[in-house]
């Protein structure tokens, strides 16, 4: 099969004498449609890996294949970035002078007509639940809303791979959870591969696979979360989850749950 | 504090450098031009104080010594007066030589007591047997002139069309005299067309105590002449005032453009550091302390600019020393007060340019400042109803856009207004000549039309050329209006010449004889004179017989008298300034021009349509305007590049994002260039309006303003727009290029 991402002995070394091995022989395979978190302490090479995968940075040695294509042989990296990869940054990095619709149109500027751009942009904003904020400037949006626009922008050219660097870094946990949930939904409905770098265990716990890094090496790689487990975890952030955490039995009984069911749920959510 | 200020400035080296350069040009202009003006003053002072005379007798209201005329025979009468010990006439004029366009010539009688100050270092003086036996008319050459023209005793010296033999080299210590030449009085009178006339008399009294009684005697006996002490006389030269005015006009413009650049740059520095300032406030800095920090930065930058400007000014004077020394513009004349002046101007510039940004910084709310994310409008601004990225970016970063526009507009405006005025002068001249004649003639090899003098015998020869139908001689000069600082343009026409028919007399009649004058409507109004009254000019009386209207503004600000009166008035009997020629067949015009120029080498003929353009005055004015334009473009370009550099730096991360979204380098470059071109076009349009407004402001200037009128042509507007777009484009391209080169990873990490 063709891997969406495949790296072979990937190295990225900074500096000359006092060299820093930001990536040290990284071998990685990610299949189409995966939803992956990369975790690790600061300086472990997560962001460098993301930059190299997105062709923003070049490896010192080793190879990167995206959808089977060797990046070192791709002539037009600009158009590769434009069409195959979407980026989401920690700080939304929307252009402050443009509206939501216009921001989402930016990546499409060289690849489609004005009418197509506008239609696609509106559709994407609807997909991320921002259709009521089409003509707002970034300054008029909340942090979570800005990141939703940023996600729409990343999907503009139907990339096969979306790279997100600490996308929830500037959000509170509820908004952060919402954002990752949105990404997961998009991952499921559009089949787009998502790779996100994060510090946050709660965020990583929402994905399907967690890759751990340390000192430029991969130190762990595990598949987590069956769909049922995920549904239960999502419940923690739902109203029912809140009520269980608060011990609001009255509300739960009103919702039709009997005491034994409530106890079972409490047990699961405590894990 | 000083350490923080220094670090802040060094953090943005390119920007600081550009701002310093911008300011230094202004200060260099003040130093360079100010030194020229000082040198002029020093030249007159040296001439007068070196003479050892007590008093100077000259024509009142003359603009400059070279324009003053007094009858030579008065010298004998003066010598007969009981108080007088010695008298010497002197002529002064400016001519062209082989290599120098403006060259001072002085004429003294051979036995003049003044000549003793001309210390001969090589060769001999006039009163020697060797002088009598030299081949050709003798001339003494100043030491500086000799050095820069590489002349020695025995060489020849050509002044306009005449050749002289150098018999001696002298030194007096005065810049004018040492860079000029001395002729025998009668030779200089012939050269300058001032037969039996001198520019002034130097008078030495037997006893300085007799000054008061002598002064009384002179004012009774010669009411139309002006007696003054040497010092007093030196300080009264109109040329010095005119030059000082120019210094301030150019300096003022440089300061205006530089100040806007300064404010722009500091404002950007504040925006860029909003979050940082928030942090300073949060850790306990007071608003006042922030204010002083920002103000300190701009003052330090402007003082550095001042210093660099001094060096530039010095370099300018050194580089052009060979030309400038003729006006006393030597490095030695850079005086401390002038430097102090330049620095105080620059300091004011720094404070004015820094105060608004500093105030703005000090008023930032710490909480908001810390949250500030740079560049954007924070949602406070409305969007411009239409237009793409470039329009929105300019519209929403309104303060910066306004300042940049201001900078471009001032640059373009300054150039356009000066251009307009020169064009206006050419236009006025053309209006005066074109309708009447096919060919215009002036003296060849002169520095300024004001010095042109063609002998009437030459006129007779011109009119005997078979193609010529008729000629009109005219005299053309300017005097100061009595009692005010204004100019009065005097024209002399023979009452029966075809040239005088041009004047549209609306009151009274045309002049018919000597001692009559007709004047322009504006002048009549400003002097409050009516037909029938008399007018005093240079202490001669004329009867006002008519008032005319003219579309040429300086004709409105002057008058017309008979050719004879005008010749006497300027002390050049039987000489005219120009000839206008009518041909039997206009088709022969070019051939006749060529014929006159080859047969009569003393004069220079041109087709009427080209005459104004070929006039040395116009050429000089154009050269000056070109010089100022280059300075303005330099200043404006620096400011523009600075702003665009900041705009691009501020958006480095934005550019990184665009690159990571698949934008090509070209596209990023295109976006920035688009924006700066748009800014350029807008700036050009605003600049054209500014230029027209500035042109109008010039006419309010008290001494010459009323004689100026601007005239604009389509090519001038197109050129202004081009300059603005070029400023915008060039200012934008370099920063954009720099930004597009940055690897996206680094651009994204930029703070």
UniProtKB/TrEMBL annotation, chain A:
GO terms assigned for molecular function: ATP binding; ATP hydrolysis activity; transmembrane transporter activity
UniProt keyword annotation of rRNA-binding present: no
Alphabetical keyword list: ATP-binding, Nucleotide-binding, Transport
Pfam families: ABC_tran
Gene Ontology CC annotation, any one: membrane protein complex
Domain ABC transporter residue range list: 5-240
Name this protein carries in UniProt: ABC transporter domain-containing protein
Organism for this UniProt entry: Leptolinea tardivitalis
From TrEMBL, chain B:
Residues in ABC3 transporter permease C-terminal domain copies: 249-366, 628-740
Domain MacB-like periplasmic core intervals: 16-219, 401-597
InterPro entries: ABC3_permease_C, MacB_PCD, Macrolide_Exporter_MacB
Top-level taxon in the UniProt lineage: Bacteria
Membrane topology: Multi-pass membrane protein
Main location per the UniProt record: membrane
GO function term, MF aspect, one: transmembrane transporter activity
Membrane spanning residue stretches: 247-269, 290-316, 336-356, 402-422, 628-648, 668-697, 717-737
Signal peptide (UniProt feature, chain positions): none
Gene Ontology cellular-component terms listed: plasma membrane
Location of this chain's protein in the cell: Cell membrane
Keywords recorded for this protein, A-Z: Cell membrane, Membrane, Transmembrane, Transmembrane helix
The family this protein is said to belong to: Belongs to the ABC-4 integral membrane protein family.
Protein's name according to its UniProt entry: ABC transporter permease
Organism (species): Leptolinea tardivitalis
């Amino acid at each position: 099969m063709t891997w969406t991402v495949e790296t072979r002995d990937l190295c990225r070394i900074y500096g000359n004498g006092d060299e820093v091995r930001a990536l040290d022989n990284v071998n990685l395979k990610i299949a189409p449609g995966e939803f992956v978190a990369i975790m690790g302490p600061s300086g472990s090479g997560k962001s460098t890996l993301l930059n190299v995968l997105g062709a923003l940075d070049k490896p010192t040695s080793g190879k990167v294949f995206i959808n089977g294509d060797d990046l070192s042989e791709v002539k037009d990296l600009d158009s590769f970035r434009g069409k195959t990869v979407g980026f989401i940054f920690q700080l939304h990095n929307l252009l402050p002078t443009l509206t939501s619709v216009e921001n989402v149109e930016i990546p499409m500027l060289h690849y489609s007509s004005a009418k197509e751009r506008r239609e696609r942009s509106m559709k994407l904003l609807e997909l991320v639940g921002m259709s009521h904020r089409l003509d707002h400037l970034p300054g008029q949006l909340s942090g979570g809303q800005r990141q939703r626009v940023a996600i729409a922008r990343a999907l503009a050219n139907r990339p096969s791979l979306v790279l997100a660097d600490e996308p929830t870094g500037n959000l509170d946990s509820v908004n952060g959870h919402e954002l990752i949930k949105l990404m997961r939904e998009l991952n499921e409905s559009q089949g787009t591969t998502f790779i996100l770098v994060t510090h946050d265990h709660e965020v990583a716990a929402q994905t399907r696979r967690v890759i751990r890094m340390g000192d430029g090496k991969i130190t762990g790689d595990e598949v987590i979360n069956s769909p049922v487990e995920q549904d239960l975890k999502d419940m923690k952030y739902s109203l029912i989850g809140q009520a269980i955490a608060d011990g609001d039995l009255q509300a739960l009984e009103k919702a039709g749950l009997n005491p034994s069911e409530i106890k079972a749920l409490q047990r699961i959510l405590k894990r | 504090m000083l350490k923080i200020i220094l670090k802040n400035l060094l953090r943005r080296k390119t920007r600081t450098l550009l701002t310093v350069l911008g300011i230094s040009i202004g200060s260099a202009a003040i130093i360079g031009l100010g030194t020229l003006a000082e040198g002029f003053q020093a030249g007159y002072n040296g001439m007068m104080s070196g003479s050892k005379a007590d008093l100077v007798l000259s024509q009142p209201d003359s603009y400059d010594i070279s324009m003053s005329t007094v009858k030579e025979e008065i010298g004998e009468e003066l010598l007969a007066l009981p108080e007088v010990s010695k008298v010497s006439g002197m002529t002064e004029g400016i001519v062209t030589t082989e290599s120098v366009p403006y060259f001072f010539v002085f004429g003294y009688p051979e036995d003049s007591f003044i000549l003793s100050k001309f210390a001969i270092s090589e060769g001999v003086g006039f009163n020697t047997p060797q002088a009598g036996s030299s081949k050709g008319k003798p001339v003494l050459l100043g030491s500086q002139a000799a050095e820069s023209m590489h002349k020695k005793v025995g060489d020849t010296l050509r002044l306009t069309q005449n050749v002289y033999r150098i018999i001696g080299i002298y030194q007096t210590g005065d810049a004018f005299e040492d860079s000029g030449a001395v002729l025998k009085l009668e030779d200089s009178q012939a050269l300058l067309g001032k037969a039996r006339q001198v520019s002034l008399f130097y008078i030495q009294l037997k006893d300085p105590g007799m000054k008061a009684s002598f002064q009384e005697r002179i004012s009774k006996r010669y009411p139309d002449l002006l007696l003054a002490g040497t010092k007093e006389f030196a300080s009264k030269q109109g040329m010095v005032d005119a030059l000082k005015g120019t210094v301030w006009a150019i300096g003022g413009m440089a300061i205006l453009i530089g100040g806007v650049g300064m404010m722009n740059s500091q404002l950007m520095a504040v925006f860029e550091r909003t979050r940082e300032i928030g942090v300073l406030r949060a850790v306990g800095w007071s608003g006042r302390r922030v204010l002083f920090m920002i103000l300190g930065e701009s003052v330090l930058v402007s003082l550095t600019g001042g210093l660099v400007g001094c060096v530039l000014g010095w370099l300018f004077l050194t580089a052009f020393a060979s030309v400038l020394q003729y006006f006393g513009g030597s490095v030695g004349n850079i005086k401390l007060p002038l430097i102090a002046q330049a620095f105080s101007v620059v300091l004011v510039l720094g404070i004015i340019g820094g105060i608004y940004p500093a105030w703005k910084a000090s008023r930032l709310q710490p909480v908001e400042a810390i949250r500030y994310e740079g560049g954007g409008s924070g949602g406070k601004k409305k969007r411009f109803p239409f237009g793409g990225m470039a329009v929105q970016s300019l519209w929403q970063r309104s303060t910066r856009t306004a300042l940049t526009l201001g900078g471009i507009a001032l640059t373009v405006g300054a150039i356009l207004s000066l251009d307009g005025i020169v064009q206006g002068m050419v236009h006025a001249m053309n209006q005066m000549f074109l309708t009447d004649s096919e060919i215009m003639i002036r003296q060849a090899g002169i520095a300024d039309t004001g010095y042109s003098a063609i002998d009437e015998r030459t006129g007779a020869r011109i009119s005997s050329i078979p193609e010529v139908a008729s000629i009109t001689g005219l005299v053309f000069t300017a005097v100061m209006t009595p009692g005010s600082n204004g100019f009065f343009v005097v024209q002399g026409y023979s009452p029966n010449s075809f040239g005088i028919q041009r004047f549209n007399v609306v009151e009274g009649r045309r002049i018919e004889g000597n001692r009559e004058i007709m004047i322009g409507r504006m002048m009549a109004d400003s002097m409050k004179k009516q037909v029938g009254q008399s007018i005093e000019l240079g202490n001669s009386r004329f009867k006002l017989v008519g008032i005319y209207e003219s579309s040429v503004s300086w004709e409105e600000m002057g008058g017309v008298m008979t050719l004879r009166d005008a010749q006497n008035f300027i002390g050049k009997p039987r000489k005219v300034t120009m000839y206008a020629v009518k041909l039997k067949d206009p088709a022969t015009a070019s051939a006749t021009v060529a014929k006159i120029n080859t047969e009569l080498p003393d004069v220079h003929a041109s087709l009427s349509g080209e005459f104004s353009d070929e006039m040395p005055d116009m050429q000089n004015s154009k050269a000056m305007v070109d010089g100022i334009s280059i300075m303005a473009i330099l200043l404006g370009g620096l400011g523009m590049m600075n702003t665009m550099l900041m705009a691009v730096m501020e958006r480095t991360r934005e550019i990184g994002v665009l690159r990571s979204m698949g934008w090509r380098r070209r596209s990023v470059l295109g976006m920035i260039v688009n924006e700066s071109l748009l800014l350029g076009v807008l700036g050009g349009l605003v600049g054209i309006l500014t230029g027209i407004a500035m042109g109008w402001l010039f006419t309010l200037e008290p001494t010459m303003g009323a004689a100026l009128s601007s005239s604009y042509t389509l090519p001038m507007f197109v050129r202004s727009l081009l300059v603005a777009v070029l400023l915008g484009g060039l200012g934008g391209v370099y920063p954009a290029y720099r930004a597009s080169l940055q690897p996206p990873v680094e651009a994204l990490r930029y703070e």
